[in-house]
Amino acid sequence: MLFSKDTNNILKRILKLLRPYIKKISIIFVCIIASAGISMLFPLLSKQVMDRGLLKSNFGIVVKFSLFTFALVLIDQAIGLLETKYFSYLNSMFQYSLQKAAFKHLLKLKLQYFNSTNFSEIMGNIGMDVGNISRICDKGTFIIVSQIFRIIGGLVGLLLIDWKLTIVVIFVVPIRYFTVKFLAKKRKSMFKEFLEYNREYSSWYGDTITGIKEIKLLGIDRIKIGEFIKKQKNIVKMNIKLAFLDKFNEYSESIVFQGINCMLYILGAYIVFQNGVTIGGLFAFLTYSAYVIGPISAILNIGYNFSNIIPSAKRYFEFIDMETETEEKTKNLVRLDASKIKGKIKFSNVRFSYREDEQILNNINLEINPGEKIAIIGANGSGKSTFINLLLRFYKPDNGKIELDGTDVSSINLKDYRSLISVVSQDLYLFDTSIEGNISIGLKKDEANIKRAAKRSGAYEFIKDMPLKYKSEVGRNGSKLSGGQRQKIAVARAFAREAKILILDEATANYDVESEMYLNQLLTRDFNDKTVLIISHKPDILTKVDRILVVDNGSIHQFDNYNDFLVMNGAV
Q1: Exposed end of the chain (fewer CB within 10 Å): N or C?
Q2: Domain residues for 136?
Q3: Same domain, yes or no: 346 and 268
């Protein structure tokens, strides 16, 4: 068996990805085979020019076969252009399809993946793996597959000229086989180590750039440079080792081939002197021997060349096989009619933990009625965000269930379900586009809705003073805006969705007092048809909500009003 069972499975998956391009691949193969067939004629034509033309001083023969050779070259080049057209399409589209599949899968992965992997590591891994897998569509790979035809034609040519010299050529096969097998095994092991070094570096790099503000404040740039040198040193060393191994493979191939050529010249000259073959026949034999030796080495080098592809393909498919948010239930999902949703939320015996020894939420039983305004408070790490993430289906309860209007949320189409909820997160994010684009993202463009949402959130007060108004660019994550302006745009985005459930996670943390009081009044006055959950410890909003939920040590305690909460906590 040329490859292990694991490697064969990976190759089958790669070939499956190539199925949509089977017509293009077929045309490329036809072009390569036709080109190989034409090239097989060149040694025979050279033999005729040498033996019947030059050695016999027959000028007509020289002209005839030279023009014939030139005509074949023109045909061969035309075939090459056609091959390049389809090959470039295949190479580009295959790489695009891998990137597209990875990106689509990335958007569907569970939140836990992004909590444990930074963007630099994700980009580094996907970029390297796609680049390496795409090498299977390199021109060299197709040529390797087509070399079997050159070998057959070359062997026929060799046998027709001299069978004794043919044995010498075939002698190269076992020598190259064992050499390449040893080097390929070593390279595969080294490349796995190289991938791991790159993964560690990408992870460290992403973590460093994300914390650039802290690095500047703490003055630890020299420490980070030291860490960079240490991590890059491993990558540089492995690059040198891999390059040396590649060169050693080339040298071993060159030495074996030159040794065989040396023997062929010596033995060939002896046979020519004995009148066994003509001079033209000897040169044709040497050309045919290259046709056989080169492809044999290329075929044997498949394992060596794939030593990059297989580890990357394995990691890529492991990534593609990661469980997504929507993977567990794809059939018989409930499709919702947003106009009929009332917004009643019910938690029944819900338990959740990130680790077995640490219970975050324990046996939560809770009902939130349609149109209620609920405040959620609790110490840092008490489980407030976990409660919201469970409701948003970023996580699944370990036990129990969450219902919306009496329907288990896990049985609802995820896209439909999340379209019912508007969220302003504490760690909000603005996209690098205009204010208008950020407010209306994911919605049909409706200027009236955008302006209404901006006025309700308080964003209109600063938008009207900007030169481009709603067309103004916000920069990456709102870098061109102040903290309060960013927050108002995020609130406007949530309002523009007109969702049945509104979740505000410290949504007014950067609001000025006047704007915050206005928004709190608005929430309790104009949102009677929506269920609103507010994470906040500010008294102004706590006095206006219908109920207060206190998350503490995995449990949730309910208070009907702010005074009851103060009494229970000994504040009054």
Answers
A1: N
A2: 21-320
A3: no
pLDDT tens figures, 387-397: 888 888 888 88
Show the tokens assigned to 25: 């691949």
Q: Half-sphere exposure of 168 toward its Cβ, with a 13 Å CA cutoff?
A: 23
CATH number of the domain encompassing residue 455: 3.40.50.300
Structure tokens at 172: 């190269």
294 with 433, same domain: the answer is: no
| Residue 29 CB contacts under 8 Å (≥ 6 apart), including other chains | 142, 145, 146
- Distance between CA atoms of residues 197 and 188, nearest Å: 14
pLDDT tier for residue 141 given thresholds of 50, 70 and 90: low
Residue 87 in any domain: the answer is yes
For the chain, the domain total comes to: 2
User: Same structural domain for residues 345 and 261?
Assistant: no
User: Is-contact 375 564, C-beta < 8 A?
Assistant: no
345 and 303 belong to one structural domain: no
Instruction: Give dist(CA 332, CA 48) in Å, integer.
Output: 74
Say how far residue 153 (Cα) sits from the centre of its chain. 42
- The whole-number average pLDDT for the span 521-534 is 81
- β-partners of residue 345 are 368, 404
DSSP-derived 3-state class of residue 344 = coil
Whether pLDDT at 292 is above 70:
no
Q: Are 40 and 150 in contact (CB under 8 A)?
A: yes
Quickly state the pLDDT bin for 331 (edges 50, 70, 90). low
Structure tokens at 431: 């996209």
Length of the chain: 572
Tell which of 269, 290, 320 closes a domain: 320
Q: Give the β-pairing of 345-355 and 358-368.
A: antiparallel
DSSP β-ladder status, 345-355 and 399-404: antiparallel
Strands 399-404, 555-559: pairing kind: unpaired
Q: Within this chain, do residues 143 and 170 fall inside the same structural domain, yes or no? A: yes
- Same domain membership, residue 316 and residue 453: no
Q: What is the CA radius of gyration of the chain?
A: 35
pLDDT digits (tens, 9 = 90+) for 19-62: 888 888 888 888 877 877 777 777 677 777 777 777 777 787 77
- Considering only residues 58 and 572, tell me which one the structure prediction assigns the higher pLDDT: 58
What's the sign of the alpha-carbon dihedral 193, 195, 201, 204? Answer: negative
Percent of the chain whose predicted confidence (pLDDT) is above 90: 0
pLDDT band at 159 (very low <50, low <70, confident <90, very high): low
Angle formed at CA 293 by CA 177 and CA 75, multiple of 5 degrees:
135
DSSP letters, 97-142, are HHHHHHHHHHHHB-HHHHHHS-HHHHHHHHHHHHHHHGGGGSHHHH
- 523 pLDDT tier (thresholds 50, 70, 90): confident
Grouping H, G, I as helix, E, B as strand and the rest as coil, residue 434 is strand
pTM of the predicted model as reported, rounded to 2 decimal places? 0.69
Q: Is residue 57 in some structural domain?
A: yes
Angle (CA) 213-219-220 rounded to 5° is 90
At 538 the three-state DSSP class reads coil
On whether residue 195 sits in a domain, the answer given is yes
